């Protein structure tokens, strides 16, 4: 071959090698840029979703584990929020959407693998969704099979979970405590199963993403070796091209290191905005994303601290207000009975031993109720649990009216009792007496100059069954329409020195007895009529 041919061939080899290395460099940079953008905007949110779903299901399981046997009503309202298989469906929908965005440009696919391991994740989650392990286990357990009427129709674990929740709601409604406890255990087992599979899927996906970062780093290393090898065979121009390319790729190495350190947990690291335009763009976008994430984390941390302080202060204030409100009623009654006892003991002549003993017994009863209230708040920071008994509402109302008659007469309030005998409820006498105290106090405060007060007990039947109604009606000015919706909310009051706690506590007593408190239309005039509606025994 002639010298010119050799020179031409040598130049052709140099140009081909340089062109190949340049082509590889462009394809690799394109792939890396796609990888960074895709992992940041698509894959990492999916990983966070898997992590969050697993953590939330773990929290549901712990909450159910801590639930006491008398919290079944709360458990029934709480369990549907878990949605274990609904979360699996949502992740599957996101993986299908993710697959459409996982393909890199065709140029990048020539030099590097860019497909995420989504089929494996999809397969695992589909297997979890279509599993029948829980269903088969329930069918082999005769007690569970008898407790879940819809078990024969279920075809997979999601349907079995829905059947369990429906059966739990029915068992709680029918007060089948043993079946309810058994169903809660099975529901917890299914939640832990889904949480464990989601956690395994998250670990596998996280490992796959780590491998993708390693592959990106490996592609970058191969790119440097190829450029260095081909440039060594070139003439001065090739050497110059090599130096220029190495200089342009150095920021990419730094960006890859920044990405790796950021993924390892260092949120303060930032990329240098140098090198080629696309590398600068990637570095700037990365820095913008890192700044936004750091700022958002700082704001969330600050907001969490502020919210925690506010919640603690609000809880403390509400507890103090409730205690003050509940102590006020018994103290007022104790003071009045003490005055009456003093008058009885101070009068000339023989003391009426029977009346004095009644007054002392009434004072002792209120002191005991004060002790129970304060110990309940201080020991558990919430009202004491209900002590249920079969009560005759008419007898309870008459005894209460007899006890507060002196207090009412001193305020010019004329009380009338219209109580139907035989109206019974399954309730706590102390809590119902507490509710009557609050309603009667509101009534006499609504009549500063005195007036009529009606205490009534009646029965009412509707589509939901038979109800016992305890009504307290006053002869005051009534409640304005604008206040009707808000009066049962804590700290809502129209009185100058009111606390806004009384009606809220009455509402809590009604809910604790599976009943309700209503503001009804007055039967004797234009005053306020409050009806405590409870399930009749």
Report on the structure:
With 537 residues, the protein is an alpha+beta fold. The chain has three domains: 3-269; 328-380, no CATH class; 389-535, 2-Layer Sandwich (Heat Shock Protein 90), CATH 3.30.565. The protein has 15 helices and seven strands. A five-stranded mixed sheet has the order 2-4-5-7-6. Helix 13 runs parallel beside helix 14 and helix 14 (429-445) runs antiparallel to helix 15 (502-512). Mean pLDDT is 78; it is low at 379-383.
Categorize the overall geometry: elongated
How many domains in all? 3
Report the uncertain regions. 379-383
The CA-CA distance between the termini, in Å, is: 114 Å
Structural class: alpha+beta
List the helices and strands and how they pair.
Elements: H1 3-66, H2 72-78, H3 84-101, H4 106-109, H5 118-130, H6 133-140, H7 142-147, H8 157-173, H9 177-232, H10 236-263, H11 277-346, H12 353-380, E1 389-392, H13 393-410, E2 413-419, E3 424-427, H14 429-445, E4 451-462, E5 465-474, H15 502-512, E6 516-520, E7 529-535
Parallel strand pairs: 2-4
Antiparallel strand pairs: 1-3, 4-5, 5-7, 6-7
Helix pairs in contact: 1-3, 1-9, 1-10, 3-5, 5-9, 8-9, 9-10, 10-11, 11-12, 13-14, 14-15
């Amino acid at each position: 071959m002639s010298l010119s041919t050799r020179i031409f061939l040598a130049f052709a080899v140099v140009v081909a090698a340089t062109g190949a290395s340049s082509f590889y460099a462009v394809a690799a940079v394109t792939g890396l840029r796609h990888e960074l953008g895709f992992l940041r905007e698509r894959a990492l949110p999916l990983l966070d979703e898997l992590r969050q779903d697993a953590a939330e299901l773990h929290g549901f399981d712990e909450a159910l584990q801590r639930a006491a046997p008398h919290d079944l009503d709360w458990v029934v309202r709480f369990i549907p929020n878990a949605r274990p298989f609904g979360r699996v469906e949502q992740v599957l929908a996101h993986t299908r959407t993710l697959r459409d965005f996982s393909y890199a440009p065709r140029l990048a696919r020539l030099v590097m693998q860019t497909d995420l391991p989504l089929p494996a994740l999809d397969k695992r989650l589909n297997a979890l969704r279509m599993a029948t392990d829980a269903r088969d286990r329930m069918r082999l357990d005769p007690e569970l099979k008898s407790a879940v009427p819809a078990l024969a129709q279920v075809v997979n674990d999601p349907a079995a979970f829905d059947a369990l929740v429906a059966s739990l709601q029915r068992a709680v409604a029918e007060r089948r405590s043993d079946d309810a406890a058994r169903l809660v255990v099975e529901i917890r087992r299914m939640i832990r199963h889904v949480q464990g599979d989601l956690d395994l899927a998250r670990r596998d996906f996280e490992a796959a993403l780590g491998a993708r970062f390693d592959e990106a780093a490996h592609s970058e290393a191969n790119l440097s070796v190829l450029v260095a090898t081909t440039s060594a065979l070139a003439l001065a121009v090739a050497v110059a091209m090599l130096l220029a390319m190495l200089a342009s790729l150095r920021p990419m190495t730094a960006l890859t290191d920044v990405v790796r350190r950021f993924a390892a947990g260092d949120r303060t690291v930032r990329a240098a905005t140098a090198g080629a335009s696309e590398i600068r763009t990637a570095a700037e976008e990365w820095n913008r994303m890192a700044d936004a994430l750091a700022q958002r984390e700082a704001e969330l941390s600050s907001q969490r601290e502020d919210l925690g302080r506010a919640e603690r202060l609000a809880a403390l204030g509400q507890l103090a207000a409730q205690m003050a409100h509940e102590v006020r009623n018994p103290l007022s009654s104790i003071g009045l009975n003490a005055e009456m006892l003093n008058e009885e003991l101070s009068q000339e002549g023989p003391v009426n031993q029977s009346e004095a003993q009644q007054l002392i017994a009434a004072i002792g009863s209120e002191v005991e109720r004060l002790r129970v209230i304060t110990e309940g708040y201080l020991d558990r920071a919430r009202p004491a649990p209900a002590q249920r008994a079969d009560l005759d509402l008419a007898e309870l109302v008459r005894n209460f009216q007899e006890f507060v008659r002196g207090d009412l007469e001193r305020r010019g309030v004329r009380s009338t009792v219209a109580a139907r005998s035989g109206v019974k409820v399954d309730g706590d006498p102390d809590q119902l007496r507490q509710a009557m105290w609050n309603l009667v106090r509101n009534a006499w405060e609504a009549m500063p100059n005195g007036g009529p007060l009606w205490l009534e007990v009646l029965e009412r039947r509707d589509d939901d069954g038979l109800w016992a109604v305890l009504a307290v009606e006053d002869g005051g000015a009534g409640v304005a329409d604008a206040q009707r919706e808000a009066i049962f909310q804590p700290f809502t009051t129209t009185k100058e020195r009111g606390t806004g706690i009384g009606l809220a506590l009455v509402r809590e007593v009604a809910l604790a007895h599976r009943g309700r408190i209503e503001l009804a239309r007055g039967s004797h005039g234009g005053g306020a009529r409050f009806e405590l509606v409870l399930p009749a025994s």
